[in-house]
Amino acid sequence: MSANVKDPIVFPVSKISAPNRVALAPMTNTQSHPDGRLSDDEATWLKMRASGGFGTIITAGAYVDALGKSWDGQIGIHNQTTAESFLHLSESLRQGSSIGVLQLFHGGMRAMHDANTNLSPSGGTNSRGQTIARKMDVSDIHLAITAHVEAAYRSKQSGFHGVEIHGAHGYLIHQFLSTETNRREDDWGGSSANRERFLLHIVRGIRERCGEDFLIGVRLSPEDANWFHGIDFDACLDLSCRLAEDEGVDYIHISLWDAFKAAEKYPDRGPAITHFKKVLPPEVPLMTAGKIWRGQDAEDVLSYGADILALGRVAIAHPNWVNEYLQDTDYHPSAPPFSVTHLKNAGLNPAFVEYMRKWKGFVEN
Ligand SMILES: Cc1cc2nc3c(=O)[nH]c(=O)nc-3n(C[C@H](O)[C@H](O)[C@H](O)COP(=O)(O)O)c2cc1C
Questions:
Q1: CA 240, CA 255: separation in Å to the nearest integer?
Q2: How confident is the model over 168-213, as pLDDT tens digits?
Q3: Looking at ligand 1, which atom is closest to the CA of residue 166?
Q4: Stretch (H or E) spanning 344
Q5: Which domains does the chain have, with CATH numbers?
Q6: 308 CA distance to ligand 1 centroid (A)?
Q7: How far lies 91's CA from each of 98, 147, 163, in Å?
Q8: Packing angle between helix 233-246 and helix 272-279, nearest 10 degrees?
Q9: What's the sign of the alpha-carbon dihedral 104, 258, 328, 362?
Q10: Three-state SS for 88?
Q11: 107 lines ligand 1 (CB under 6 A)
């Protein structure tokens, strides 16, 4: 039987519980300070979603090292000053019922620096063939692992219940996992075991440093999409199982951009998310996101096997989505485009509204 949106959930390793099956998806919103400190605007935007009933609040990707920063206004968790800026937010989340999860991020070759400073397992070029990153040496790799582990520890000290490791969407961890961006011939490239080593060291390091009572989730892209390639669906299924069975991960988050879609590799075998549900241990929650808009969409995706739904764009426009759904399960939130006034009332500052103009058709002209 599939889960109900209203059901609470207990994460298997940390034993932390969330009051329902809806999470705020991690969303970069460019509202924070140039040095990575959380701004009042970004804190307010997150708190509004906690008041709106979201059981799990996942922050935007926070860079674990200044080298990994990818956008102006992005939050960071790379030093003590940025870590302290989250204390108020996590305190406020703890006073309510939502749990707070910080997303750990490193842009790798897609960071905002120059070709000599951006890092990637094998260096990197853009679509025009220009060099955009240098190849990491083994000491860079160890430094990047430590940066993730220490950032997780700072998140714990800042009062978060846990972290989500961003291993999706073509950023640094994904660059290690991908056969296209990782062409190394040492222990960190080649076989899938070698390409996964970077992520596994991060997971193990965080568990050791932060203890059993700290929640650890991992977000993965299951196959090629948009601008990132070199990921095989079956390899991602295997990796998810290893993370869940052997590495003490509290949840697996599969980023599909369309939670209803079939795997491109298996177009006739039903929703991609169902494949993950079938192979993962039943006690390890499976989270997914993508095009969940109405109450009925949420119920459908739970029936495909997801345990937790991460809502992205609908949560930007409708901060009270969960409370509205709880009152009327046939909830039909209004669709884009949204006026600037609507978005302002939903807690977006002018920088975030501008950023959302990049998402075609979201903001009214
Ligand atoms: C404005 C915006 C920023 C995003 N930033 C992140 C991010 O920081 N980390 C991440 O893993 N995904 C990010 N995503 C992807 C979302 O988490 C989500 O997977 C995606 O939007 C699909 O869900 P939706 O159809 O409900 O929007 C972002 C999406 C949007 C719209």
A1: 12
A2: 999 999 999 999 999 999 999 999 999 999 999 999 999 999 999 9
A3: 11
A4: helix 340-345
A5: 9-333 (3.20.20.70)
A6: 15
A7: 11, 24, 16
A8: 40
A9: positive
A10: helix
A11: no
Cβ(313) – ligand 1 distance below 6 Å: yes
Q: Is the peptide bond before 337 cis (omega within 30 degrees of 0)?
A: yes
Residue minimizing CA distance to atom 18 of ligand 1? 312
Compute the distance from residue 219 Cα to the ligand 1 centre, in Å.
11
Give the SS3 label for residue 301.
helix
Are 201 and 193 in contact by the 8 Å Cβ rule? The answer is: no
Instruction: Give the position of tokens 């206004």.
Output: 73
Tell how many helices (H) and how many strands (E) occur in the chain: 13, 13
Check if 165 has its Cβ closer than 6 Å to any atom of ligand 1.
no
Count of CA atoms in the C-beta half-sphere (13 A) of 105:
28
CB 314 within 8 A of CB 294: no
- pLDDT in single tens digits along all 365 residues of the chain: 789 999 999 999 999 999 999 999 999 999 999 999 999 999 999 999 999 999 999 999 999 999 999 999 999 999 999 999 999 999 999 999 999 999 999 999 999 999 999 999 999 988 888 999 999 999 999 999 999 999 999 999 999 999 999 999 999 999 999 999 999 999 999 999 999 999 999 999 999 999 999 999 999 999 987 767 899 999 999 999 999 999 999 999 999 999 999 999 999 999 999 999 999 999 999 999 999 999 999 999 999 999 999 999 999 999 999 999 999 999 999 999 999 999 999 999 999 999 999 999 999 98
Among protein residues, the one whose CA lies closest to atom 2 of ligand 1: 27
Neighbour-count burial of 55, counting CB atoms closer than 10 A to its CB (0-12 exposed, 13-18 middle, 19+ buried): buried
Residue minimizing CA distance to atom 14 of ligand 1 = 27
Q: Is 102 exposed, middle or buried (0-12, 13-18, 19+ CB in 10 A)?
A: buried
Q: Whose CA is nearest to atom 28 of ligand 1?
A: 27
CB 251 within 8 Å of CB 308: yes
CA distance 228 to 207: 28
